[in-house]
Amino acid sequence: MSFRRTPWVIVLAGAALAFVPQLGLPAFYDSLLYLMLHWVVLATSWNILSGYSGYFSFGHGAFFGAGIYTSANLMARHDWPFLWTLPAAAGVAAVLGVALGAVVFRVKGVRGELFALLTLAITFVIGTIVVNTPLDGGNGVSLAAVPVPKIGPTPSATFYLLALAAAVATLLIAWAIQVSKFGAGLFAIHDDEDAAEVLGVPTYRYKLVALAISCALAGMAGGIHALFLSYVTAGDVFTITVPLTVVLMSVLGGTRHWAGPAVGAVAITGLLYSFTAADHAVAGKAMIGVILIVAILFMPDGILERVRRLWQRRR
Q1: In angstroms, rounded to a whole number, what is the distance separating the alpha carbons of residues 262 and 41?
Q2: What 8-state DSSP symbol labels residue 20?
Q3: How many domains in the chain?
Q4: DSSP letter at 229?
Q5: 265/243 Cα distance (integer angstroms)
Q6: Are 60 and 243 in contact (CB under 8 A)?
Q7: Distance CA 161, CA 156 (A)
Q8: Which of 19, 198, 226, 289 is in the most buried spot, having the most CB atoms within 10 Å?
Q9: What's the whole-model pTM score?
Q10: In angstroms, rounded to a whole number, what is the distance separating the alpha carbons of residues 218 and 227?
């Protein structure tokens, strides 16, 4: 796909998918498509820092959760309209990410496994703070009385359209970063950070900006998901599920390409739901593990890169 056509393809695909609610499909399919797009946003946003720069973060759930609780509290306790809470959710998550990065990225020794473990710890720290403050209070936050905006013909269609818009925006941002000087700097950090600094790449600033963008998009996804869940609790939000899932999706699809995490997200979400619908949820999770092992052994660069190489050989 040519450099100039890519964003148009993303936008046109999004516009075409926006007509899906008009087909009158059962709400189940709207919800399934919503979850696919929800994971596309989370996996792609995670990849902007972790895939491009190589700083694997296990704290994506913390910023996603910050977005959930920001929106939930603004809606339930301060009567904010749902859509108004989304910029706030993105902003709070970005501020938390920048605050963390401003400290961590100054310490040269915090890379690789140490960075991953530190970000994982942040998830549980924030979760503990939330559950012991009025943000949650131990009882969770109910959003049953909050009206769903009438964007689509049904509430499930509304969530689907919101996730579609978020996914299109996230993919456009990921693509724009990859083809920019900023993206080249992130990939240089991924390959050899010390060499990148010698060559003049402002590594600290680039990592901080990438983390801010990654967290903001995760926070926005969290804001949408808060109303989708209708009832949020810290025990269900601040877990290791989100970071592990986005890592799996990104690695499966390919972390070196803007579309890789989206491919992995759609594949894994579809596979899990096909097994769940057939009443084989446990088998589905086992199959995901097998697929990950096979992907790591035989497709270390991900599905997308494998397909691209096969296509080039046939041409």
Answers
A1: 8
A2: G
A3: 1
A4: H
A5: 13
A6: yes
A7: 9
A8: 226
A9: 0.93
A10: 15
